[in-house]
Amino acid sequence: MTTRSIVLITGASSGIGATYAERFARRGHDLVLVARDKARLETLAARLREEHRVAIDILQADLTQPKDLAAVEMRLRDDSRIGILINNAGAAHSGSFIEQATDDVARIVALNTTALVRLANAIAPRLAQAGEGAIVNISSVVGLAPEFGMSVYGATKAFALFLSQGLSLELSPKGVYVQAVLPAGTRTEIWERAGIDVNALPDLMEVGELVDAALVGFDRRELVTIPPLHDATCWNALDAARLALVSNIRQAHVADRYRGAA
Ligand SMILES: NC(=O)C1=CN([C@@H]2O[C@H](COP(=O)(O)OP(=O)(O)OC[C@H]3O[C@@H](n4cnc5c(N)ncnc54)[C@H](OP(=O)(O)O)[C@@H]3O)[C@@H](O)[C@H]2O)C=CC1
Ligand SMILES: CC(=O)[C@H](N)C(=O)O
């Protein structure tokens, strides 16, 4: 199913999502493209149909709106031809936590986490039942490091990474592949949308280079793909340190350093 199944891509109207759409169309996959900007989706779809002779459906949806999100969930649940979900739609915002308005914080969390997990939850049972398929969650290196200074955005991206790791443990024995992709700064509209001057940022990766690398990881069935990480042993060391910490947790009693007078 995954070789030529339909690919549903969220946030497909620009940037990383639009590039995934182009790459999967080039591979001969039919597509379902999701975003708010219907005109942009239609323009992209027309070009990809013409260039690659694939069938493309458009779902206009604001994934922070429960009704729109439910429609995409229903499509993922009911359309057994969809075998790959690219959970890509996301947004960032500028400023420190105390400068960010509560509603803006909630909107970023709703889009980057709630929509992501609801869509994964909508498709996962069907893929597990079929014994094949893939869920790709677009995280970020910002999710590895609070030091980048984007606490809420980074937390949502840490969520995407953790969720992918957990789902991989649950779903890979059932034949479902789960991938977390962690880009670093990539030249897309996300910066401008977040009120950050892209021209002030040095050394951004071009979006085609990013997505092509993510697809190398996808084809290798890698769980965590970090295209801008040059020494892969750094990730392996981090993961090994995490597992060593977990093996040192003794649930029944506190550690000696917490024993003392109450
Ligand atoms: N560019 C970068 O440096 C990095 C990006 N990422 C992640 O990559 C993903 C894609 O971002 P990128 O391509 O860079 O940015 P873009 O801003 O170019 O793309 C974001 C996409 O998400 C869609 N989107 C935004 N808000 C909503 C919404 N409420 N409902 C539905 N769709 C929405 C946009 O479409 P529309 O406006 O039409 O709805 C657009 O298609 C994000 O998850 C981002 O966090 C991760 C690391 C680095
Ligand atoms: C806005 C950002 O910080 C960027 N998208 C990233 O995740 O690196």
From TrEMBL:
Domain Ketoreductase: 5-176
Gene3D superfamilies: NAD(P)-binding Rossmann-like Domain
Keywords: Oxidoreductase
Record carries keyword Mitochondrion: no
MF-aspect GO terms: oxidoreductase activity
Pfam families referenced in this protein's UniProt entry, alphabetically: adh_short
Protein EC: 1.1.1.298, 1.1.1.381
Taxonomic superkingdom: Bacteria
Catalytic activity: 3-hydroxypropanoate + NADP(+) = 3-oxopropanoate + NADPH + H(+); L-allo-threonine + NADP(+) = aminoacetone + CO2 + NADPH
Family: Belongs to the short-chain dehydrogenases/reductases (SDR) family.
Function of the molecule: NADP-dependent dehydrogenase with broad substrate specificity acting on 3-hydroxy acids. Catalyzes the NADP-dependent oxidation of L-allo-threonine to L-2-amino-3-keto-butyrate, which is spontaneously decarboxylated into aminoacetone. Also acts on D-threonine, L-serine, D-serine, D-3-hydroxyisobutyrate, L-3-hydroxyisobutyrate, D-glycerate and L-glycerate. Able to catalyze the reduction of the malonic semialdehyde to 3-hydroxypropionic acid.
Protein's recorded name: NADP-dependent 3-hydroxy acid dehydrogenase YdfG
Source organism of the structure: Steroidobacter flavus
